[in-house]
Task: inverse folding
């Protein structure tokens, strides 16, 4: 029987992934863990363990004594925060991964999910319909850590037969938890401000096109990838995955269909340079062919759901 540990469960992806996995298996089989002392409200329907992924001994002991079979390792610093704390970002994003890969190499774990990002691409990458295999020269600490992580995942799979699977998530959009310090966060923040004040000052310029995805699609993709037969998984670095792409101006126009008095202004900051180094759109044909990926949510549907559900009180 599976016993799943989700590390970094208190964040934007983790909180929804834990709920989806608990629905699929059972609440007792899915242990949420995070460095946070308190279990976040949304995932209080099952077990919680406070764990610091950087405490290698404690993580090893917990996994081994509790006979954990699968780990979803989500703890990381995202792109914008990582640029402010490059040394710590490298440490957190890499050391945690080795702790989990080593546990699998030693036979304690059966499956690992570790998320990569569109940040693995850089300014020299073809940025329209970015292919799976292409030039990858990331120019951010975050992107460098994700690219290195991908290489190590593939290495552990090829050398030690570790069943590790990964997705290069685009910017993820959701309303249950706030995003955790990324460059794509504007595409979540904008909904809170649209609902609260009918105006938003965007930290990216109006024509900055980026790949995005509604969270329900990202969670479904994760579960589908993890369930796919091993022989279908031809990529052990990380799969390109596409949902939708838009610019801040296009998103604002879409929001105005529901909030006609909504206005947007632009004050690009350091995150503009990060966004300019990333793809505008993604070719995800390997995910489609290998394990049948297909997105369900386009921009229009996502905007409707976000405006209906964001709770501006979360910002207080
Ligand atoms: P997040 O910042 O919202 O959540 C990360 C969680 O990790 C937080 O709850 C935090 O408390 C926890 N954490 C931090 N340090 C820890 C430690 N030492 N030990 C244990 N837990 C710790 O991030 P997210 O958006 O949920 O992203 C999760 C993963 O997905 C990351 O690896 C991120 O790079 C990747 N990803 C996210 C997106 C996105 O748009 N959200 C896109 C691409 C990739
Ligand atoms: C970020 O902006 O850092 C993340 C990502 C795309 O990896 N949302």
Result:
């Amino acid at each position: 029987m599976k016993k799943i540990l989700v590390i970094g469960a208190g964040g934007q992806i983790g909180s929804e992934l834990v709920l989806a996995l608990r629905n699929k298996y059972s609440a007792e089989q899915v242990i949420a863990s995070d460095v946070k002392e308190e279990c976040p409200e949304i995932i209080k329907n099952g077990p919680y363990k406070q764990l610091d992924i950087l405490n290698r001994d404690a993580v090893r002991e917990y996994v081994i004594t509790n006979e954990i079979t699968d780990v979803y390792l989500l703890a990381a610093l995202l792109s914008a925060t990582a640029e402010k704390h490059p040394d710590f970002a490298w440490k957190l994003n890499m050391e945690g991964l080795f702790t989990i890969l080593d546990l699998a190499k030693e036979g304690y774990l059966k499956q690992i999910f570790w998320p990569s990002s569109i940040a693995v691409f850089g300014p020299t990458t073809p940025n329209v319909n970015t292919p799976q295999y292409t030039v990858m020269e990331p120019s951010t600490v975050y992107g460098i850590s994700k690219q290195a992580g991908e290489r190590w995942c593939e290495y552990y799979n090829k050398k030690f037969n570790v069943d590790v699977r990964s997705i290069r998530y685009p910017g993820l959009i959701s309303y249950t938890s706030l995003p955790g310090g990324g460059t794509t966060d504007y595409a979540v923040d904008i909904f809170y401000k649209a609902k609260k004040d009918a105006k938003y000052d965007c930290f990216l310029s109006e024509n900055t096109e980026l790949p995005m995805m509604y969270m329900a699609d990202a969670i479904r993709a994760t579960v589908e990838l993890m369930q796919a037969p091993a022989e279908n998984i031809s990529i052990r670095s990380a799969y390109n995955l596409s949902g939708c792409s838009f610019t801040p101006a296009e998103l604002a126009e879409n929001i105005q269909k529901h909030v006609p008095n909504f206005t947007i202004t632009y004050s690009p900051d350091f995150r503009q340079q990060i966004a300019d180094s990333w793809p505008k759109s993604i070719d995800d044909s390997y995910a489609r062919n290998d394990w049948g990926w297909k997105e369900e949510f386009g921009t229009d549907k996502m905007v409707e759901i976000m405006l209906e559900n964001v709770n501006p009180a979360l910002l207080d």
